[in-house]
């Protein structure tokens, strides 16, 4: 295997620099690609579809809680994702795991933890801090429902959650308004929702609770 390609998605330059430093120390041969927003990450994933690992911050411009994690898992299932977050509430860690992450590194963890987690996941394993939160059936159900959506439907759903009308969604995603209408109908059916508002509430549930 050549040099591993590792994507780092975080909007804080200082934190990206710290992660880069930890990665360089743990695996000097790694090729690291940085992104500071969800759209930039989308471009990086298209440019590096064979990336070996993604280190993902949950709170970035263009991201809504766990939406990016679910989106990446749906569109690039071959890329393992390790979530890095300052919110290390046990339920947030548990939800990251249920939504398909291969690992979770609290931002408060020592630099060595990044190297440890990356090595474990590149080796085909997983890396999570000890968790007190129980597995949630509601989250498991939500993850299963969202997994039925196509990448395009997922994008439409996130626009719905922002309160956009079909015409605005069509403009935003470069689609015909009729296509958006078809997507919305399919989304509501797959998610067992009877209204756009109910679907928006469902997406709201992807936002990590505060750790307070």
From TrEMBL:
InterPro entries reported for this sequence: CheY-like_superfamily, EvgA-like, NreC/VraR/RcsB-like_REC, Sig_transdc_resp-reg_C-effctor, Sig_transdc_resp-reg_receiver, Tscrpt_reg_LuxR_C
Keyword flag DNA repair: no
Domain of life: Bacteria
Limits of the HTH luxR-type domain: 142-207
Gene3D superfamilies in UniProt: 3.40.50.2300
GO molecular function term, any single one: DNA binding
All residue ranges annotated as the Response regulatory domain in the record: 5-122
Name of the protein described by the UniProt record: Response regulator transcription factor
The species this protein was found in: Luteimonas marina
């Amino acid at each position: 295997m050549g040099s591993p390609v590792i994507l780092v998605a975080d909007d804080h330059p200082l934190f990206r620099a710290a992660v880069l430093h930890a990665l360089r120390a743990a695996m000097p041969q790694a090729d690291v690609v940085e992104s500071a927003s969800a759209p930039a990450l989308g471009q990086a994933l298209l440019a590096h579809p064979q990336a070996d690992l993604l280190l993902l911050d949950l709170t970035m411009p263009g991201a809504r809680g766990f939406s990016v994690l679910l989106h990446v898992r749906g569109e690039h299932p071959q890329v393992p994702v390790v979530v890095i977050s300052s919110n290390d509430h046990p339920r947030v860690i548990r939800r990251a795991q249920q939504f398909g992450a291969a690992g979770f590194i609290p931002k408060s963890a020592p630099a060595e933890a990044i190297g440890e987690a990356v090595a474990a996941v590149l080796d085909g394993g997983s890396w999570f801090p000890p968790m007190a939160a129980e597995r949630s059936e509601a989250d498991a159900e939500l993850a299963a429902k969202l997994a039925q959506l196509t990448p395009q439907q997922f994008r439409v759903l996130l626009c719905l959650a922002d309160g956009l009308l079909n015409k605005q969604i069509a403009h935003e995603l470069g689609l015909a308004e009729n296509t958006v209408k078809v997507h919305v109908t399919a989304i509501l059916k797959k998610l067992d929702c009877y209204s756009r508002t109910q679907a928006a509430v469902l997406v709201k549930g992807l936002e990590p609770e505060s750790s307070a």
